[in-house]
Design a protein that fits this description.
10 strands, two-stranded antiparallel ribbon, alpha/beta, eight-stranded parallel β-barrel, TIM Barrel, 16% strand
């Protein structure tokens, strides 16, 4: 199933028009992010928008505070919107660990935060960026330490960010495939190109070897593939071209 991360369209309001665009493009699912359901009004709006456009939301991003401080609300959101996967996507640079022990402790923290989510019958995981693949000063790979601290932590693998971190996504799929429950599909422009959109590209129009990576993800049972572009100049074009490319793989 190809889904669409609504964060890609945060600079193209209103949400109702984005949902219409996504559905008209041919997506049957979307992935939410924390700001969309920060309160009851937001939850009501997104729920109505999904119904109006016959869209599902199998996964959603939640800030760490949302799951740590208000787990009941996170569960309510997930159950209301039909999610099976609750994902923490980010930690602010000021809160980011700088040592191997710090990353291990963050894994412990996530393990604890995810327990109510798992007890509710949902999957709970982490979405990576590039910084998890840059070794700390004491020589530890953050992503490895994070997993060691969180033995039950699932993983939504953002493949392009893995590559930007200098790591080999196929090697990580081979070693940690048992954790991967979803994958973000985005592409990286050739060096020096697309600077205005932070060097990203529409899926299939960049340098990521999706012809090898997508089958590898399918082989380990991943079915939730989420299109994302962190800063598209034209979100409708990104949605359209990316879906067309993915369907050809």
């Amino acid at each position: 199933m190809f889904s669409y991360q609504l964060y890609s369209s945060r600079n193209f309001p209103p949400l109702a028009k984005t949902l219409e665009m996504v559905a008209a493009t041919g997506y049957r699912a979307v992935e939410g992010f924390g700001g969309l359901y920060a309160d009851q009004a937001g939850l009501t709006d997104i729920s109505a928008g999904l119904r109006a456009n016959d869209l599902k939301m199998p996964s959603g991003h939640f800030g760490l505070a949302q799951v740590e401080d208000t787990p009941d609300w996170a569960i309510t959101v997930a159950k209301t919107l039909g999610m099976q996967q609750v994902i923490v996507p980010w930690i602010h640079p000021d809160e980011r660990p700088t040592t191997g022990k710090g990353w291990h402790d963050l894994g412990v923290r996530l393990q604890k935060a995810g327990q109510p989510i798992r007890d509710a019958g949902l999957r709970f995981g982490w979405h990576n960026h590039d910084f998890e693949f840059v070794k700390t000063a004491d020589g530890v790979m953050p992503q490895t330490a994070l997993f060691e601290g969180g033995p039950d932590l699932a993983w939504e693998m953002d493949v392009a960010w893995v590559i930007r971190g200098g790591a080999d996504p196929l090697a990580w799929i081979a070693e940690h495939g048992h954790r991967i429950i979803a994958a973000h599909l985005k592409d990286i422009a050739p060096a020096g190109e697309n600077a205005a959109v932070d060097g990203w590209a529409d899926l299939g129009h960049g340098t990521v070897d999706w012809a090898a990576i997508l089958p590898a993800l399918r082989d380990i049972g991943v079915t939730n593939f989420v299109m994302e572009h962190d800063n598209p100049a034209d979100h409708a074009r990104f949605a359209r071209r990316s879906l067309a490319s993915a369907q050809d793989l």
